[in-house]
Specification:
By secondary structure, this protein is of the alpha+beta class. It folds into 2 domains: 238 residues, Rossmann fold, CATH 3.40.50.150; 80 residues, TATA-Binding Protein (2-Layer Sandwich). Helices cover 27% and strands 29% of the residues. The protein is built from 10 helices and 18 strands. It has a 9-stranded mixed beta sheet, sandwiched between helices. Strands 12-16-15-14-13 form a 5-stranded antiparallel beta sheet. Bound molecules: S-adenosylmethionine (SAM). The site of S-adenosylmethionine has 25 residues, from strand 4, helix 5 and strand 6.
């Protein structure tokens, strides 16, 4: 199959999933072939199957298949400490999945000539797509990891694109172009939105990012900056999971030895699988809480935040630290039921110089 045929097939898949609707992005996908951004050795990470090593030298066809599949390709583990061939470690850089990338780009509503800041260059593929749409002189991409940025620069050169690449902490934005950014596209997970992004964006400008406050998957947030320097916007219909902004990675827990035992009132599985709307409510009402769930019999849940944690196995609840996180979670669940079980698109986020808050239906209905 030729590269052109592979890109056409990928575009058809993205169109049928609803990720790709605009011809301009179809043209960009053809202009900057994704395989130019795949390292010779990397870890393919399908959503519905086990990950596997792709090695161009060993199996060029499988490598090419992964380049044009709608799933992420992991390019770095543990900030480069762990060999990618193990696939075993904390994912720290990747070539994001085409569907998520394109859906985000459409949410960003980029016009030709827009001055765009990308945070998290990774392989450089998104920066290349943005350059094709907005014009390469208008795109700045910031990456925190020098080795990642060096590879991105090579990839972009091979693809014939020259956005401006900057080594630095994207949490600070890119003050050199402030306050004239039209668009900010963050391609790492964010729990707390740095106000610098809002401050550096012109009124009416758009900021999109994966909001990942602690429960997987995260949410695609689309904010517009107002004339008063406050950014307001809603969550899009579909979720997204990205690698976290480096200084917002969730801390590991250190809990005290004392604990309290009780039984869950509501079914833990019912709560954890209630959907993304409840996840947003939890993030709004219990900021800083992370959770993981493990399928099986018994169904298991772990919650943690600061010095507190809760572990639920079946209906047995064990809570550690000052906060009773499971009890708090049940309270949020019942409040969300009383609100009519709103889905994630009914929620939104406001970012001010003082911080951020989540609202339901309209910005003045802040959930507390
Ligand atoms: C999911 S990857 C980005 C994918 C990329 N946009 C692409 O098209 O391939 C996330 C990237 O964000 C980078 N990153 C994490 N924290 C950052 C920060 N504070 N500033 C800039 N880049 C950061 C990581 O090093 C990683 O390369």
């Amino acid at each position: 199959m030729s590269v052109r045929q592979r890109i056409d097939a990928l575009c058809c898949e993205l169109e049928s999933n609803g990720d790709l609707t605009e011809p301009a992005w179809r043209a960009a996908l053809h202009a900057v072939p994704r395989h130019l951004f795949v390292p010779d050795r990397a870890w393919a990470a399908p959503y519905d199957a086990k990950g596997y090593l792709i090695d161009r030298e060993q199996d060029a066809e499988a490598w090419m298949d992964a380049a044009y599949a709608d799933h992420p390709v992991i390019t770095q583990l543990d900030d480069g400490v762990t060999d990618i061939a193990t696939g075993d470690g904390y994912y720290t850089s990747s070539l994001s999945a085409p569907g998520v990338v394109v859906d985000f780009l459409e949410l960003l509503r980029v016009y030709e000539g827009n001055r765009v800041l990308e945070i998290g260059t990774g392989t450089g593929w998104t920066a290349a797509l943005l350059s094709h749409r907005a014009g390469e002189g208008n795109v700045v991409s910031v990456e925190i990891d020098k080795s990642v940025l060096d590879v991105a620069a090579d990839n972009l050169a091979r693809a014939g694109c020259k956005p401006r690449l900057v080594l630095g902490d994207g949490a600070a934005g890119f003050p050199d172009r402030a306050p004239f950014l039209d668009r900010v596209h963050v391609t790492c997970g964010v729990s707390q939105v740095p106000y610098a992004w809002v401050e550096q964006t012109r009124p009416g400008g758009i900021i999109v990012f994966p909001w990942m406050p602690g429960l997987e998957p995260g949410h695609k947030a689309v904010l517009t900056v107002g004339r008063d320097g406050v950014a307001i916007g809603r969550f899009s219909r579909r979720g997204a999971s990205y690698m976290m902004l480096r200084d917002q990675r969730p801390p590991g827990g250190e809990y005290g030895s004392g604990h309290r035992e009780s039984r869950a009132t509501a079914e833990p599985r019912r709560i954890l699988e209630a959907g993304a709307g409840l996840d947003v409510a939890i993030a709004g009402l219990m900021p800083g809480v992370s959770a993981t769930a493990k399928q099986g019999d018994p169904f298991e849940v772990t919650l943690w935040s600061g010095q507190s944690a809760a572990h639920v196995s079946g209906a047995e609840v064990t809570q550690y630290g000052d906060r009773s996180l499971w009890d708090e979670l049940e309270d949020v669940f019942f409040r969300w039921i009383e609100w009519g079980s709103p889905d994630r698109t009914r929620f939104g986020l406001t970012v001010t110089p003082e911080g951020q808050h989540v609202w339901l239906d309209q910005p003045d209905n802040v959930i507390r």
